[in-house]
DNA sequence: ATAGGGTTAG
């Protein structure tokens, strides 16, 4: 920056706070503040605002609260306060990506050798309603409704006008109440807003609409939609309608969803990609993939919106819900041709479709594709940009695949998948797999009349089955008959990582 | 794409 003769200002560092937040560098936040002070840059309220928002984003309400409290008390040793709290729960484990270390060291050289005495604020800053509201959001995020409401009361009692609750503060309270399912109390807050002359806006109403939909009170939502237009003179927008359309899905009414989609367009409100995708969801979830496809085609034709991965996935989901694997695979080919790589949601839908269609062979193909994308290819990073981006599988996807493989007696693959689950910190549902195994395969390989040739062919599968039983903690050829069939034993006995374990087992014989 | 409190799809 200096090379270009440009000097960083307060805004620069507000961006940097956001950068630290996005890169999961909580412990660096305090050094942004210190850097601003060391460079003699004029501090402004937005910096404190950004800081509190960042800590709230990290879910660290202790530091967020302490900043607000220190500001209230007019303390100038804020950096020291934050540093000490930061130290208490410091762990480098979840502090971002090592590769970014150098960048941050350059941006915040003071973070490497922190000054022994953190700098003082040049003057004091009193919190304003924005900062209070940000802290309030922290309470809301943690479901602390009574703290949210108590905060509102405290703000009302403040002497300075800058700290009084405004429409955003009230909307945050409404949101907290709605999240807790307290629609009546939320309506009381809305009434209070009108009464005291802090009028609700479209966002407030949209939050309430969402609340009624979540409570499956679609009639109340429709009523409120009318009320906001007729009484409050706030025209519903595309978000309001998207919420209602989704509300119809929640009560299994795809026809109602379509009606509202059409009503929205009749009112001259342009659908967004979310509107289209939500309507597709209505048809996908009601086993009408062809209708979902029609919506998708209309979305393709609408120049105002761009089809994205979510829309493609919804299309795939529609076919997979019906177990139409071939159609789903064709869609996935098309999405690839259009430059979209399938993601966990795509593969998750497909895995469920394969399970429904009872085509375990498809699961093997899918697992092969997923496995290739799970492996982090260090060498390929700089070269071929054509490589699909690495995939982070989730529990739903891997569990669906493992389930299929266990049912189909693909034990080697099942072990690969559970190993992958452990690598990604997902606890495999051993109890479920054990149940499937016992119910479906416990009599496997027990036929005494099999020919020698057939027994030879089965050897490899049998070894895999034994390894799988070992992992499940079921009696197996390695531990013989002394093994008790106790659901807890397997978990307690086995301590090595799964990968080490089953590879060792497979090479014993 | 790039600070600044509250809402919508997978």
TrEMBL record:
PROSITE patterns: PPR (PS51375). Signal peptide: none annotated. Keywords: Repeat. Pfam families: PPR, PPR_1, PPR_2, PPR_3. PPR repeats lie at residues 128-158, 166-200, 201-231, 237-271, 308-342, 394-428. InterPro entries: PPR_rpt (IPR002885), TPR-like_helical_dom_sf (IPR011990). Belongs to the PPR family. P subfamily. PANTHER family: BNAC05G43320D PROTEIN (PTHR46598), PENTACOTRIPEPTIDE-REPEAT REGION OF PRORP DOMAIN-CONTAINING PROTEIN (PTHR46598:SF5). This is Pentacotripeptide-repeat region of PRORP domain-containing protein. It comes from Citrus unshiu.
